[in-house]
Amino acid sequence: MFLPLIISSGGNSGSQATTLVIRAMALGEVNLRDWWRVMSREVQAGLSLGAIGTARVAIWSIVGEHHFHRQLYGPHWPLVALTVGIALVGVVLWGSLSGSMLSFILRRLGPILRLHRRLLSPLLSMLPDLLFILALRW
Description:
The chain is mainly alpha-helical. The protein is built from four helices and no strands.
């Protein structure tokens, strides 16, 4: 039920991080020495999104049980909420960190590696999705 939403969060966050970092680099707001500051902001965003996902499942479970007299996620909804939160944190962190740091790496290797910037978005949409599905297989 949550798998498509969790997986798409990784690709979306990676594409968004790439776009924001490339824009900031083009405007001169961020340079290569600011990678640590960008990474810490992406970690904060990933953790907050995981907390929001956990709270969403918990709130819907409590509201569903009290107002609709049915358990939306079953009797083990706290475990479902925790699982969704951890998965969201992992996928969003992977997507946003790989998107933002790959932009720094490509900027650094710019004269050596001439990869067109338009290829980053599809690559970063696919990479977290693929790695999350592979992680579920193990």
